[in-house]
Structures are given as C-alpha cells and as structure tokens.
Predict the 3D structure of the following.
Amino acid sequence: MTTPATPSVLFVCVHNAGRSQMAAAFLTHLAGDKVEVRSAGSAPADTVNPAVVDAMKEVGIDISAEVPKVLTTEAVQSSDVVITMGCGDTCPVFPGKRYLDWQLDDPAGQGVDAVRPIRDEIEQRIRGLLTELGTE
C-alpha cells in the first residue's frame, strides 16, 4: 500500500512580508506535516511587517523568526497549488499546477487594527483550502 503524496502549497506576494507570510503560517499551524508549505515574493522585503507579526501573535502563531524569501522557478515547479495574494504578481506557469489568486487588502504600512480583518479572512480561506485538499 502506498502513501499518497503530501500536497504542497506556495503563497506568493510581492514583498513576502504580510499576506503570504500569514497564509503560510496558518497553513503550517492548521495542517502540520500534512501539507508542505512555502511562501515567497518577487521583490522580498528585508523583514516581515511588524504589525503582521503582532496580529499573528494575537492568535497564538509566532512568525517573528520568519524572513521574506525570493520567488524561484523551482519553488513553483515543486508546488501543487500556487496562490497569489492579490498583488498582481507574475508567476511562472507550469502545466499541472493549480493557480489561485486571493484578492486581499495589503497590510503594508497598516497598524494591527487594520491587519486583523486581513488575518481573519486569510484564516478562513486556509480552512477552506484544507477542506479542498482533503487534509482538514
């Protein structure tokens, strides 16, 4: 009997400092080792947005050690699902991959109060994704 392959998901945003970091953190938190999770940006920032770090801490997820990563062709090729975060990012397209674009407000330059609703919407979308992947 063979074990089904672990699905892999890549979250992409321009700076990889807000939305994609929150999405990756929620998926890792909720799915554990049932899903391989990546996040990246086409023009990564130097650090993750501090308001995003604080908003995630409020729900018990510490992303303070995360660092924005550059988007690579290899990351896309090795992912089953590629989710852009409403950033208008261009992503290499490969056959057999599932591409989604989640239209979400940008937390850049916003305080924690503005980040909370974005965080909560991302969490709901991640829960829906887990159901679609059959890993909830």
